[in-house]
């Protein structure tokens, strides 16, 4: 076998080679870690289903022989599917999280970590529901940190603490929508030495009513706002849509009896006014945070939260076709979701070429030098 160190990221391949293999070793023709690695390379280069993954591997057989043993040659598309359906998804997710932490070792994580769920719609069949994954996205680093599968969207409440347990988020600000407004989730974030900024809606009636009451009184007694640490506003116009966002925050919680229960340091309200197609829409959202935050900081963090939708979920659907993937056997859909995020992280970290993710995937398939460059970002 040739020296791999000049060709590919040792850390990623070596982690894959250590994955637990559920098969009887005496009956194994193909190496599980090598199959997972070939699949990752295929996804990087534009393959999106088992047939195209096998075709890619067949065409690159000599290339793979530089650093893989390939004891059984290139697997069939059915074998790719079967091995991914057997691979322990918990073990695979743990490998993914460990690899991301290695990737960020020289640049400690900071800023917003946005947590939100996504459904892989085509994974649904007559016998099973579509898989729903809760994802963690680091906005400043522009990487996916990890994910956790849930049976349905309502079970995100149980999955978020488990996901937080896997993440190294010390010093970060974890942002979650109203689904995550739960005391056990708040406690888990703080236990992980991070802070939270969480949307509050009527699923927490007492807390929500107290925030509404506080800000209604504030607006009645403060008819005119000026820019300060307690008030900030932004306006912008894009694609014919006008938006005006105003944020009010306070760190004086002496009149809020419920603040201690939630370990709150800041409360905030954001009013968003939008005009599109000559129609106007306005709504108010309320937030709690364990961090002392100015109104400008709250507004900035809530905007960064949407990176999980725009830079992760949207890209997975549009550039990787995740919503159209019909892998349903065993754990295949869940494990492919993890592999896509590995590929996406690699592509996101490569910044020398100014292309979108879809075209970067094409570039990997067309140019071996660029593929090595993408993979070589991980040392």
Short description:
With 379 residues, the chain is an alpha+beta fold. The chain contains 14 helices and nine strands.
Spans of 5+ residues with little confidence (pLDDT < 50)? 1-10
- Biggest sheet: strands side by side, in what order? 3-2-1-4-5-9-8-7-6
The percent of residues in helical segments reads 40-55%
Shape: elongated
Mean model confidence by pLDDT? 90
Rg estimate, integer Å: 23 Å
Overall domain count: 2
| Beta-strand fraction estimate | 15-25%
- Give the terminus-to-terminus CA distance: 20 Å
- The SSE string, one letter per element, is HHHHHHEEEHEHEHEEEEHHHHH
Largest sheet: 9 strands, mixed
Q: How many β-strands, per DSSP?
A: 9
Main structural class: alpha+beta
Give the helix tally: 14
Organism: Marinomonas profundi
InterPro entries: ISAs1_transpos (IPR047647), Transposase_11 (IPR002559), Transposase_11-like (IPR051698), YbfD_N (IPR032806)
Pfam family, one: DDE_Tnp_1
Protein name: ISAs1 family transposase
């Amino acid at each position: 076998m040739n020296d791999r160190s000049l060709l590919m990221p040792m850390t990623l391949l070596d982690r894959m080679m250590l994955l637990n293999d559920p098969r009887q070793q005496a009956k194994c023709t193909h190496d599980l870690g090598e199959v997972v690695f070939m699949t990752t390379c295929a996804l990087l280069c534009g393959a999106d289903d088992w047939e195209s993954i096998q075709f890619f591997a067949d065409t690159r057989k000599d290339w793979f022989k530089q650093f893989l043993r390939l004891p059984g040659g290139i697997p069939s598309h059915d074998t790719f599917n079967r091995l991914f359906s057997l691979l322990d998804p918990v073990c695979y997710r743990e490998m993914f999280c460990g690899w991301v932490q290695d990737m960020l070792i020289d640049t400690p994580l900071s800023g917003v970590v946005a947590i939100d769920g996504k459904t892989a719609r085509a994974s649904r069949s007559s016998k099973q529901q579509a898989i729903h994954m809760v994802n963690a996205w680091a906005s400043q680093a522009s990487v996916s940190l990890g994910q956790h599968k849930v049976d349905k969207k309502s079970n995100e409440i149980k999955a978020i603490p488990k996901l937080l347990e896997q993440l190294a988020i010390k010093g970060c600000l974890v942002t979650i929508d109203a689904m995550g407004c739960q005391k056990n989730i708040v406690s888990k974030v703080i236990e992980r030495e991070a802070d939270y900024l969480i949307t509050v809606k009527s699923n927490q009636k007492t807390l929500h009513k107290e925030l509404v009451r506080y800000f209604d009184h504030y607006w009645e007694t403060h008819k005119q706002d000026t820019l300060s640490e307690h008030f900030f506003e932004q306006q912008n116009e894009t694609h014919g849509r006008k938006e005006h966002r105003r944020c009010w925050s306070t760190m004086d919680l002496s009149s809020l009896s419920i603040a201690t229960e939630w370990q709150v340091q800041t409360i905030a309200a954001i009013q968003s006014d939008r005009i599109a197609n000559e129609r106007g829409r306005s709504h108010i959202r309320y937030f709690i945070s364990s961090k002392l935050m100015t109104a400008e900081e709250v507004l900035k963090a809530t905007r960064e939260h949407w990176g999980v939708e725009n830079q992760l979920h949207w890209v997975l659907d549009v550039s990787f076709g995740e919503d159209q993937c019909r892998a349903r056997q065993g754990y295949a859909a869940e494990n492919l979701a993890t592999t896509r995020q590995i590929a996406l992280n690699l592509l996101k970290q490569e910044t020398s070429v100014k292309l979108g993710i879809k075209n970067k995937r094409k570039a990997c398939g067309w140019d071996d030098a660029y593929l090595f460059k993408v993979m070589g970002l991980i040392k």
